[in-house]
């Protein structure tokens, strides 16, 4: 059964890997992106998730081209790392507005159709940092921790409509962002990971594919860590 899926922030990194994995599973997949060209073979929709009007326009386009969104993966996120004493109010509020309130905007728009059709899959991409904390990332950690409470509340609200809501919490994943870290910093990070390596974007994508599949029909409100054991116990 081909479904209509939307992955926010799906033009690169983890988001693109998720979009490609869902497409490989047979879904029609659209991705939102803020800049650049959309990925080949996927429906690219320009959208800044901090703007409700743009979110609505993006959903209208997806609905027109591939039908109401049945699978939503809220992946779009930003970082503005800084120690709290030096962090500006904008550094804090803009990260929350994208990562947490942006997820609220897309989820609110998606659930209207899902509730009407009494089916749906929502997967929120959080982070191990949301549970562990990270010096210099109070804004990012707060936004990612917020997704856990948000997702679990939605799971309780929407369960009776056959809509599941789950959270995936990646640890350190091999992406363009981690590639910019110094070798010393990378070695220090890996030392804290019981499996002794970075994860791959594909490992996140396959977890999302499972949660979006019929096989995961009795899983909702779960936080699934994909972090090599980094955050166990949290």
Automatic annotation (TrEMBL):
The lineage of its organism: Bacteria, Bacillati, Actinomycetota, Actinomycetes, Streptosporangiales. Belongs to the short-chain dehydrogenases/reductases (SDR) family. InterPro entries: 3oxo_ACP_reduc, KR_dom, NAD(P)-bd_dom_sf, Sc_DH/Rdtase_CS, SDR_fam. This is 3-oxoacyl-[acyl-carrier-protein] reductase. It comes from Halostreptopolyspora alba. GO terms for biological process: fatty acid biosynthetic process. One of its GO terms (molecular function) is 3-oxoacyl-[acyl-carrier-protein] reductase (NADPH) activity. Its EC number is 1.1.1.100. Keywords: Fatty acid biosynthesis, Fatty acid metabolism, Lipid biosynthesis, Lipid metabolism, NADP, Oxidoreductase. The keyword Magnesium does not apply. Residues 3-176 form the Ketoreductase domain. Homotetramer. It catalyses: a (3R)-hydroxyacyl-[ACP] + NADP(+) = a 3-oxoacyl-[ACP] + NADPH + H(+). Pfam families: adh_short_C2. It comes from the Bacteria. The active site is at residue 140. NADP(+) binds at residues 9-12, 75, 140-144, 173. The keyword Ribonucleoprotein does not apply. It is an enzyme of class 1 (oxidoreductase). Catalyzes the NADPH-dependent reduction of beta-ketoacyl-ACP substrates to beta-hydroxyacyl-ACP products, the first reductive step in the elongation cycle of fatty acid biosynthesis.
